[in-house]
Amino acid sequence: xxxxxxxxxxxxxxxxxxxxxxxxxxxxxxxxxxxxxxxxxxxxxxxxxxxxxxxxxxxxxxxxxxxxxxxxxxxxxxxxxxxxxxxxxxxxxxxxxxxxxxxxxxxxxxxxxxxxxxxxxxxxx
Length: 125
What we know:
single chain, alpha/beta, 2,3-Dihydroxybiphenyl 1,2-Dioxygenase, domain 1
């Protein structure tokens, strides 16, 4: 318990945001209203909503981390989807790697890749 149960991402254009997050992370969407669209994460995990706003805040109000298998691959996908890398991949020793980005409308989010434990395969290059 006590983990995240919902994340709201501010966006000026819900259709554009759905295309971005669907392409980069494979999220699926269900429109609740014209200004609020719920999203689900493939395989489960914390979902949330895209929330229409007049202006996306300059700084993230909450630092929401999206768990990924490979930070480098996601940063490439983000650039391809017209997002912007703010902080490139950085290591937190013995724990994993993180990076931050802006989506194609300016919302700031973070990526997290957990470091495999000793004896596990699949260390990133």
